[in-house]
Amino acid sequence: MNDIGAARSYGLRHSVVLVTAPVWIVASTEGVAIALGGEFLPTWLSFILVSGAGVGSAIGLILVRRMWVKYVLEVLTQGQELANGMIMLDEDDTGTGARPSTDDPLGHIETSILELARSAWSEHEELRRSSELSFFDSKLQRGFELAGNEEEAIDVIGRAIGQVLPRQAAEILLLDGDSARFRASHAVPLADQPGCGVTEASACVAVRNSVAMSFGDSEDLDACPRLRGRTSGQCAACCVPINSMGQGIGVIHLTGHAGWQAGPDERQRLNVVAYQAGIRLGMLQTLANSNEEARIDTLTGLPNRRAFGPEAEAVLRTEGPHIVAMADLDQFKLLNDTHGHEAGDRALVLFGRLAKEAFRRQDLRSRHGGEEFAFLLAKCPPEQATKLLTAFCRDVEAKAKAYGGPAYTVSIGWASSPTNASTLKELLQLADQALYTAKEQGRNRVVGFGDEPTLEQVVPQLVGAS
Questions:
Q1: CB count, 10 Å around CB of 358?
Q2: 327/408 Cα distance (integer angstroms)
Q3: How confident is the model at residue 79 (pLDDT cuts 50, 70, 90)?
Q4: Does domain 147-293 correspond to CATH entry 3.40.50.1110?
């Protein structure tokens, strides 16, 4: 308490003296002073007894500050620089070049400051990396959410790889539809770094093991066999699998010169890219399958009425002539009642297959409902349409006698655009009327709307009526 009073008598009214033997620490608004015990402390106390507490304390404080404040401030400055990342310490470095001895209290203070600074710097770096990864992840997720199809999602993957590893040779291999074969969907090639030659998912070691794999040299014993024998010679690679719902659907394949490898942060980001890509590509594939199921008749494999309408209307807006035809299996109800619905289904499956094989690539086919089918022959004159449809009728008649089910035939009616009508609805109605005429004339034939019946068509009706 006398020392505190001495400090106050000296005029340091904002000072605090801490007595922690063998160290005296005096902190004031003017600076920081540390007085060590030992030889200096008895001398100072003796001087205080002789000259008085006030003068002795004042002179002692001055001497302490001159001797130690500069040294302590250097330690504090070094610790601050370390915390700010201005200097880096080795694991065994204390900042002074050597560890302090056990009887060096100031050295212990210095070591504690530097260790705290080192710990703070490490935590700061970890938080920075975590924050940057989180920001990258959120940006990537938003990018995939904006991708409305597989092509756009692949573009996001490619741009993300470019951010993680600029100018690095890379490609994206994805399964091609329902097959187990890969196709290269995106590449950032280098002239001397060819792509991966793997074609099947089962042949990719990263996809098989469902884990990212790095290979420093293609000639290493444990390198991927697909890396050896490339025209560019030895190389390194990093392969990151893309999974969707537990199934491998692709792989990100990066290559470089022998000895190259992606850093820990880069590999972590590549894993994030692959993870987000798997989620989005899987979702897009599910949506595509759902849309396909909604557009395709599952029994015949032909587009249904919902899918046929928009495509047919688009064709009708182009310059014609175009032919819209309606086809109906003759006496299909009798076939079902006589042979059962399973036999009826087999007949429809055969008709759907023959319809896919008939006509031209630009023509449209659909199952309109039940045993009724609709066709659109694009840019087809009426004379050519009659030949194509008649040939189809004869093909159905012949194949229906040899497929292992009950034989049947088909009747077809058609109407022309723009001669008979211009809208799909009107053309279907007119084609349906022509179909009804074909049924009346004896079935297993083709009739165009407004066509006059031929002698061959009229005679059987007259014979039947008599």
A1: 17
A2: 13
A3: low
A4: no
Structure tokens at 12: 């340091």
CATH superfamily placement of domain 305-465: Reverse transcriptase/Diguanylate cyclase domain (3.30.70.270)
Residues forming beta bridges with residue 283, ordered by sequence position: none
Buried-exposed string 57-73: b where 16+ CB fall within 10 A, e elsewhere: bbebbebbbeebbeebe
Q: Higher confidence at residue 77 or residue 3?
A: 77
Q: Taking phi first (over 0 means left), then psi (-120 to 50 degrees means alpha), and beta for anything else, what does residue 242 get?
A: beta
Domain ranges of the chain: 1-126, 147-293, 305-465
**Which among 284, 321, 354 has a CA at the least distance from the CA of 449?**
321
Say if pTM beats, i.e. exceeds, 0.85: no
Rounded distance between C-alpha atoms, residue 142 and residue 451, angstroms: 60
Cα–Cα distance for residue pair 186/178, rounded to 1 Å: 19
Measured CA to CA, the distance from residue 422 to residue 441 in angstroms comes to 27
Nearest of 274, 285, 328, 60 to residue 160 by alpha carbon: 274
Average pLDDT of span 218-233: 88
Taking each helix axis from N to C end, the angle separating 150-164 and 105-146, rounded to the nearest 10 degrees, works out to 160
> At a CB cut-off of 8 Å and minimum separation 6, what does 223 contact?
215, 216, 217
Instruction: Read off the pLDDT of each residue in 331-338 and give the average, rounded to a whole number.
Output: 93
Tokens of 11: 């005029």
Calculate the CA 320 to chain-centre distance: 43
Measure the CA dihedral 116/120/126/129, to 10°. -150
With a CB cutoff of 8 Å and minimum separation 6, the contacts of 414 are 323, 324, 325, 326, 385, 386, 389, 431, 434, 446, 447, 448, 449
